[in-house]
Amino acid sequence: MNIPAIKIQLIHIDGPLKGKIHEFSEDVLLLGRHPECHIVFPETCAAISRKHAEIRREGNRFKLVDTSTNGTLVNGKQQKEVFLKNGDVLILAEKNGPKVSFLTTTGPADDKKSKVPRQKKIQPEPLPAMRPAQTPEQPIVPPPSRRPLPKEPLATVAKSFV
């Protein structure tokens, strides 16, 4: 099965890491105060457990698993396990705890996991050079006759035809 490369972005909206954006492509992310976590909160955030929560990839979806003592809110609701959607807001430990927005971006399949060869880009053939439009040959029309104009007034000439 060809699994697309999905990157997770965690955007810190509020808390000690406010303004930071973390991007990951791992299948399991750890959040907490422990130094081995992917996102490490400072020790001053005592309400956050050392290993507070995990985000696990399951196919093309991501599940938040709360492993903490003080809980995790997703969009304002206490959750133990929940599949995350783009734009979900996580609040760790307490209602005024650190606030993180969850986003995903999809890219081409990871070369390490994908066994499907990449296709070559096909370049269209260049168009032939443009030429000015050719006009068909004009039929040769003889020039009008060069008879001398009569010297008599036109009325006199017209009477000769009647």
Briefly characterize the structure.
Residues 101-162 are annotated as: Disordered. With 162 residues, the protein is mainly beta.
What would your notes on this structure say?
The chain is mainly beta and 162 residues long. It has a domain at 12-104: Tumour Suppressor Smad4, CATH 2.60.200.20. The protein has one helix at 154-159; strands at 5-14, 21-24, 28-32, 39-40, 53-58, 61-66, 72-74, 77-79, 81-84, 89-92, 99-107. The strands form two sheets. It has a six-stranded antiparallel beta sheet with strand order 2-1-11-10-7-8, with no helix packed on it. A five-stranded mixed beta sheet has the order 4-3-5-6-9, with no helix packed on it. This is FHA domain-containing protein. InterPro entries: FHA_dom, SMAD_FHA_dom_sf. It comes from Candidatus Electrothrix communis.
Quick one: how many beta strands? 11
Average pLDDT figure: 81
> In percent terms, what proportion of residues is strand?
25-35%
Largest sheet: 6 strands, antiparallel
Task: Give me the secondary-structure category.
Answer: mainly beta
CATH fold group of the domain at 12-104: Tumour Suppressor Smad4
CATH architecture of the domain at 12-104: Sandwich
**Spans of 5+ residues with little confidence (pLDDT < 50)?**
113-118
Organism: Candidatus Electrothrix communis
Protein name: FHA domain-containing protein
Pfam families: FHA
Domain FHA: 29-79
